[in-house]
Amino acid sequence: MPAFRWGMIGSSGWAEHTFTPAIGRARNNQLVAVLGSKQAGADAFAARHPVEAAYSDLAKFLAHPDLDAVWVASPPDLHSAQTLAALAAGKHVLCEKPMAVSVAECKAMTKAAAAADRQLRIGFNNRSHPALQKLAKAVASGRYGDQLEARVQVYHPYATPPPAWRQNRKRSGGWAIGDIGTHLLDVLRWLMGAEAAAVSGHLTNRCWGFKTDDHAALNVRFKNGAIGNVTACTGAAGGAPRVEFYGTKGYFALRGGLFGMPGDLESGLKGQAAKFEKIEAFDTYTGEVEAFCAQARGRDTGLATGEDGAANIAMVADGRGW
User: Fold this and answer.
1) CA angle, 288 then 98 then 147, to 5°
2) Which letter, b or e, does each residue of 279-312 get, where b requires 16 or more Cβ atoms within 10 Å of its Cβ?
3) How many domains does the chain have?
4) In the chain, what percentage of residues exceed pLDDT 90?
5) Domain boundary among 97, 125, 153
6) Among the four residues 81, 177, 233, 242, which has the most C-beta atoms within 10 Å?
7) Which domain holds residue 254?
C-alpha cells in the first residue's frame, strides 16, 4: 500500500517540533508539503525537513500532487477557513484543537466534511492512548456503574510567554482554556458518555497577567445527571496530570497518563480491594497519525469527530462566558 501523504499547515511551533516528527515516526505515512504564513518561513521549514514543496499560498498548497490529508496546525481563528478549503479540495483533515473559535464555525466545518465525504477529525491526541481507551471502554461497559463524577486537572507552567496570538482572545479563544482545557473537557465528556446540560467557569490571569486566561476552572453538569470539573493552568506548578472517575459501583484515579506520560492507576469496585498498576508511556501523536490514516482508509479508530469538536467548543464557550 502506498504511503499516506500529508500536508502540514504551519511551519513553526507545534507543527514543527511535535506534529512533523510524529508523521515521520508513523508507519507508512509521509509529510510531503508545508504551508507557512510567509514563504520565507515555509522555505526554512523545507530546509530542515525533507518535504517535496513549501508554499505560502493555500490554493497552490492544496493542489500539491497526490495529497491525501492536511493537518491544520495554525492559530484557531484560521482553522475554519483552511479546513473548509481543504475539504472542498477533496482532502481529509486532521484539525488541531481547539477546533475553531466559535460553535458556528465548528458546525460549518462538520457539515462540509459530510458533504465532501471526507474525514474530519480533531487533534485530541489522548484518544489514541490505549490505556485511556481501555478506561473509557470500561466506563461505557458499566464496569464502574453509572457515571457520578469526574475530575481532570493539568497544571503546566509555560517556561516563556506564549506567542502573541495566544494572548489575543479573538484569535485564540482563550489561553489556558483553549490550549489545555479543551483537551481536558474532551477527556471528561469522553468518560461521561453524555452531552453537557450546563457549564460554568472561572477564568483568571493571575500568573502571567495577559489579557487571556492562564488559569481556568470549569464545572459541568451532564444530561445523564453526572457532574465533572476541569482545571487547566499555564502558569503554576501542580505536579502530574490527574484524572479521577467515580461511578455507582467503583472508581479509578490516574496520576500522569495524559498526553502520553507514564502514570500510576488506582482502581476499585465496591467490596473489593483497590488495584494498582503502572501506565506505560505512549507516543500519542504518532498513534494519532496512524489512527487517522486508518480512519481515512475505512477503519473506525475512535478519534474525535467534528461533532465532538463542536460539542467541546460549546462547553469552552459556556465556560469562558464569551
Assistant:
1) 75
2) beebbbbbbbbbbbbebbeeeebebbbbebbbbb
3) 2
4) 99
5) 125
6) 177
7) 130-281
The answer to whether the beta carbons of residues 183 and 231 sit under 8 Å apart is no
Is residue 78 in some structural domain? yes
Which H/E stretch holds residue 176? helix 176-176
Residue entry with cell 470500561: 138
Q: Which residues face 53 on adjacent strands?
A: 33
For 213-251, write each residue's pLDDT tens digit.
999 999 999 999 999 999 999 999 999 999 999 999 999
Q: Residue 141's CB: how many other CB atoms inside 10 A?
A: 8
Q: How far apart are CA 253 and CA 220, in angstroms?
A: 19
How do beta strands 92-95 and 120-122 pair?
parallel
Position 300 in a domain: no
Asked if residue 150 and residue 93 are part of one domain, the reply reads no
Q: Is the pTM of this model over 0.70?
A: yes
The answer to the question of residue 219 being in a domain is yes
- Look at residue 312 and tell me if it is in a domain: no
- Work out whether the CA dihedral 103, 105, 111, 113 comes out positive or negative: negative
For 11-48, b where at least 16 C-beta lie within 10 A, e where not — what string?
A: beeebbeebbebbeebeebbbbbbbbeeeebbebbbee
* 30 beta partners: 5
Domain final residue, candidates 69, 93, 125 = 125
- Band of pLDDT at residue 279, cut at 50, 70 and 90: very high
Q: Are residues 171 and 114 part of one domain? A: no
User: What one-letter code names the amino acid at 98?
Assistant: P
